[in-house]
Design goal:
By secondary structure, this protein is an alpha/beta fold. The protein has 17 helices and 19 strands.
């Protein structure tokens, strides 16, 4: 039971904004003590049905500023299959996952389902979710467009559309795709656009799709967070790796930004040779790797994260006390977004930029446009000023293995609400411990050690039926059929292996509906 002091005041403050009791209670359970300024300003206007144009620095609470009133407005009705009622568009997978993680538990209190539709993750599972009905879809533009073109999703019922980090989507070249998606939503729907900066192509989106928007701009476009310290560290090229290692070896969570994916991998290896464990995050890694690396950073398994600019938009970790630009960012907007990973929720933070002699002029111009006045220091490895401003420490030099996340550990606890034998969407293939076996991806023949065989037919064919899915395979080349087939399909032909669609004939693979293998066909019931 909550105490009657601060908690009661918190509930009253959120309730005064017009939010329903389940949302207010959900916020209190999460320990959210008071609305941020952009939330106080924007939530009443969104609840009133106005289009809203919001600008606030990273970490200013934009997600709940649009998420809470969106959940409130669509509550009370159930989404039809494949027809979400609210859409949140974001530029990166990490940001989509974080927005969904913030909204999903709050939405449950209003009986609303929130799901992500992003690339790099199972399309089959996303289609399955959409067919069951999803109220709030948090999506990246590319994957959502794919599902719409396949007929698995329609935006005709969308009441509220949110563009989060709209400027970054435009910077990544998503303007035509985002425009096409917005054009598919009802013309009289409500549109909300939130970003740290509002300029360039964003103005074109505002002019075309927002109607008399209410503007909430709590910070000047070039302002920096007051609790940040900014320093330019001038180094010689030969000293850059050693200075980077000393700064990374400090106490506290630290994020290093590098320009390219290859650069991320190189810096992680250099740090490991110096004795500093760090995780590398960039778009070239599989999504499950990226998720585990980010989880390891949040949980404190690693204290240093090395990443690219694209990943900067998806990192929301509190208590990051220092951001180091190993490579200076390309422009002032990237500088502000990178630096926004620190000094969150009122905490203090330090932003350092390593500058080579050839980069001084461009870096000076960038910081002027960003509206910051950094301190300048010329340093060499072991310089006391590094310890003073960043807490840098010289590593012990004992090499450590390059850190990689444990891919055997499940990302989330297994769901126990799945009906035994229920068929999953054919687009997903079982992997590793999902198959019957020892958890290492190898399958057992049967409980008795032999694979059960199906009846032989007169023309030399074998038939196998899947007990769980109800489908079966027929192979033209002879073989045997499993009456207790694995997954959703069973075995047939020449000992083909079936996952959710299975193999048949001489190795032909059938998904949901199946693809033909040589001398085989797939029939599903």
């Amino acid at each position: 039971m909550l105490d009657l002091g601060e908690g009661t005041e918190t509930r009253a403050e959120f309730a005064l904004l017009g939010l329903p009791k389940p949302l207010v209670a959900g916020l209190a359970r999460q320990g959210i003590t008071a609305p941020f300024p952009i939330q106080r300003a924007a939530i009443p206007d969104i609840l009133a049905g106005y289009d809203v144009l919001g600008r606030g620095q990273t970490g200013s609470g934009k997600t709940l500023a649009f998420g809470l009133p969106t959940l409130t407005r669509i509550a009370g009705e159930k989404a039809r299959p494949g027809r979400p009622r609210a859409l949140v568009l974001v530029p990166t997978r990490e940001l989509a996952l974080q927005v969904a993680d913030a909204l999903e538990p709050l939405g449950r209190g209003l009986s609303l389902r929130t799901r992500t539709v992003v690339g790099g993750m199972s399309m089959g599972r996303q289609i399955e979710d959409l067919r069951r009905g999803v109220d709030v879809v948090v999506a990246t533009p590319g994957r959502l467009t794919d599902l719409i073109e396949q007929g698995e999703c329609a935006l005709d019922d969308v009441q509220i559309t949110v563009l989060d980090e709209a400027d970054h989507m435009c910077d990544l070249g998503f303007l035509p795709v985002v425009s096409a998606l917005l054009a598919r939503t009802p013309a009289d729907g409500q549109r909300l656009l939130f970003s740290a900066t509002l300029d360039g192509d964003v103005d074109r989106l505002v002019t075309r799709f927002l109607t008399d928007p209410v503007i909430h701009s709590l910070d000047p476009a070039t302002s920096s967070v007051e609790t940040m310290e900014h320093h330019l560290i001038q180094v010689h090229r030969d000293d850059k790796a050693d200075v980077t290692a000393e700064i990374a070896n400090r106490d506290g969570r630290t994020i290093l930004f590098v320009r390219t994916q290859h650069g991320v991998d190189r810096v992680v290896k250099q740090l490991a040779r110096s004795g500093v464990r760090a995780g590398g995050l960039h778009g070239g890694k599989r999504q499950n790797q990226r998720t585990r690396i980010l989880d390891g950073f949040r949980e404190g398994t690693i204290g240093v994260l090395v990443c690219t600019d694209v990943a900067a938009r998806g990192i929301h970790v509190d208590d990051v006390s220092l951001v180091l630009h190993v490579d200076p960012p390309a422009d002032h907007k990237s500088y502000l977004h990178r630096g926004g990973r620190t000094a969150r929720a009122g905490e203090r933070g330090v932003v350092l930029t390593l500058v080579l002699p050839s980069e001084r002029r461009a870096t000076d111009s960038m910081t002027r446009k960003a509206g910051v006045t950094p301190s300048r220091h010329r340093v060499a490895p072991g310089d006391p000023i590094l310890a003073e401003i960043a807490g840098a420490r010289r590593p012990n030099g004992a090499a450590v293995p390059v850190w990689e996340p444990d891919v055997r550990r499940p990302l989330r606890p297994a769901r126990d609400d799945r009906t035994p034998g229920r068929r999953r969407h054919g687009g997903d293939r079982h992997r590793g411990a999902d198959r019957p076996g020892d958890g290492d991806g190898r399958r057992r023949r049967s409980e008795q050690g032999e694979r059960p065989r199906g009846p032989w037919t007169g023309d030399g064919r074998a038939e196998g039926r899947a007990e769980t899915g109800g489908g079966h395979h027929r192979g033209r080349t002879g073989g045997h059929g499993g009456q207790a087939g694995h997954g959703q399909a069973g075995y047939s032909g020449q000992a083909g292996y079936g996952s959710q669609g299975g193999y048949s004939g001489q190795g032909g693979y059938g998904g949901q509906g199946g693809r033909r293998g040589r001398g085989s066909r797939f029939t599903g019931r």
